[in-house]
Amino acid sequence: MFTIFLKGAFLGASLIIAIGVQNAFILRQGLKNRHVFASALTASSIDAFLIGAGVLGFGLILENFPGLIDAVKYVGAAFLFVYGVKSFRDAFANKKLDQDKAKGKIQDHSLRHTIIFLMGVSFLNPHVYLDTVILIGGLSASYGETGKYYFGAGAMIASFIWFFALAYGARFLAPLFEKPRAWQILDVLIGLVMWAIALSLLL
Q: What is the DSSP track for 99-149?
């Protein structure tokens, strides 16, 4: 069973580590020391919820009702486009970052906003359902009635380890982001990732 657990963990890690809006946002939260624990916990809990749904067989519902994915696709693309605009606006606002803000002492986004954003980029992204509910859930079924839970648990644990490592490991990059130019570059990259994913959803 431990081997099955590891297989689930490796698959989960391979899907989660790919560059995406979730990862970029968690990295930004860690760099700013802003709601770090809540951000990592929210992102990993959402993944765990979706993986659990896949293991329990909810992927069959999505496969039988493709219209649900289409609805999520268009709403998600619009959501990502709007937040992409916001990232570009932040990047070119010519705001002078002082030392306090660079070190994350200024909390310019509420906890509520952080959680809503993470829920949006997660639940409004069809790729997330394909990776977690359908792919992980579908593969877990091949390990039998008991083995599928070990496989799913491995994928869940990989998600928690990755997001917490990313959130708290970001502090090691903090000296680099004491310069305003670094924050501008990061905001532009986040905006580009959001627009790229939004475009991929529409295409």
A: HHHHTT----S-HHHHHHHHHHHHHT-HHHHIIIIIIIHHHHGGGHHHHHH
Helical packing angle, 36-55 and 111-123, nearest 10°: 30
From first to last of the 203 residues of the chain, give the pLDDT tens digit: 889 999 999 998 988 887 678 888 899 899 988 999 999 999 999 999 999 998 988 767 766 776 777 777 788 788 888 888 888 887 777 554 444 444 444 445 689 999 999 999 889 888 888 888 888 888 888 888 889 999 999 999 999 999 999 999 998 888 887 777 888 888 888 888 888 878 877 87
How many whole angstroms separate alpha carbon 84 and alpha carbon 122?
Answer: 15
In contact, 190 and 87? CB cutoff 8 Å: yes
pTM for the complete prediction?
0.79
Q: What is the DSSP letter of 178?
A: G
119 within 8 A of 25, measured Cβ to Cβ:
no
Domain residue limits at 26: 2-202
Contact 171, 30 (CB under 8 A): yes
| Count of the separate structural domains present in the chain | 1
Distance, in Å, from the CA atom of 139 to the CA atom of 48, rounded to the nearest integer, reads 16
